[in-house]
Amino acid sequence: MKEVFTSEFKSFYKSVQGNEGDKCKYNTRLDTYGCGCQHNCDYCYARSLLNFRGFWDAANPRVADIKKVKRKINHLQPGAIIRLGGMTDCFQPCELKHRVTYQTILEMNRCRIGYLIVTKSALIAEPEYMDILDKELAHIQITVTCLDDARALQYEKSSPPSQRIHAILRLQEAGFDVSIRLSPIIEPLMDFERLNAIGIEKCIIEFLRINSWIKKWLKDVDFSKYTLQQGGYRHLPLPEKIRIVDKIRIPEKTVCEDVTEHYFYWREHVNPNQNDCCNLRIYKDSIV
Asked: What share of the chain is helix, strand, coil (3-state, %, to 5)?
């Protein structure tokens, strides 16, 4: 059985199936780093899945072989959109040493493959990366769960939220398709008044789902309202989620949802693009 799990979680390229994969338009991920993430977030579902199987090494994540990555990219159809950073963050600190994400982006640009980058790092907005991001191919979601730098450090080791906010605004001003990813949105940790005043144009919202591992790691969060059980996790009931989403007044907001009944609610009543809960801005010219 362990060999099966090893193959499953050590693969740098994978299409997610089942409940989650069926809902996600961009369910194929390419992880430039794997089996561990230096951000080591306490709410991370990937960490909870891999940790008890012995595949999580936050200090020394596996580094994808760029030759294999390039071979895979070269077999993809131009116009496809691949998620970078599915199980781990493609811009975690070790990227500064290995540059696998940098080389991957260059290859995807050359092959005209779109890429959806999900990160908790401000590194993506540094000049060396902004210079290679293709506005027709790049879609960027920068995750922020709390606006207080000191408080966020208690449960995630990523770039301080203030730096991530600056990165979002910088990319937004430069004309990139960029969203703040409130993932997970945990009501007591977010200053909604301050969030709404920042001037961010797009957001994607995803709610916390808890299991025994996340409940143990994530301190000082009241889980008493997480009363809905589905898919091995406990979730907030829909009325609670609606109340929280109503507090977010970013102009263009969309909800990424794991619970099937809730997914249909957001699709019908909130999401601007019913066929794409990521609400990506797609350029026709990027599909060749």
From this structure: 35, 20, 45
Query: Which has the closest alpha carbon to 267: 28, 26, 24?
Result: 24
Q: What token pair was written down for 271?
A: 């999401």
Among 30, 73, 24, 6, CA closest to 206: 24
- Nearest to residue 274, comparing CAs of 244, 247, 254? 254
Instruction: Lowest mean pLDDT of 21-25, 70-74, 86-90, 220-224, name the range.
Output: 21-25
Which amino acid type is present at position 40?
N
pTM confidence score: 0.91
Q: Which two tokens stand for residue 179?
A: 């969203």
Per residue in 9-24, pLDDT tens? 456 888 876 566 578 8
Residue 16 structure tokens? 């997610």
Count of Cβ atoms closer than 10 Å to residue 24 Cβ: 19
Helix (H) or strand (E) holding 216: helix 212-217
Residue 48, CA distances (Å) to 64, 78, 94, 218 in order: 21, 34, 21, 11
Task: Name residues whose C-beta falls within 8 Å of residue 262's C-beta, 6 or more positions apart in sequence.
Answer: 235, 238, 241
Largest CA distance in the chain: 50
C-beta atoms surrounding 94 within 10 Å: 21
Give SS3 for 172. helix
Q: Measured between alpha carbons, how far is 135 from 127 in angstroms, rounded to an integer?
A: 14
* Sheet strand arrangement including 177-185: 13-15, 28-30, 81-84, 114-119, 138-143, 177-185, 202-207, 252-256
Cis, peptide link before residue 161, omega less than 30° from 0: no
- List pLDDT tens digits, range 134-186: 999 999 999 999 999 999 988 888 889 999 999 999 999 999 999 999 989 99
Looking at residue 77, what DSSP letter applies? P
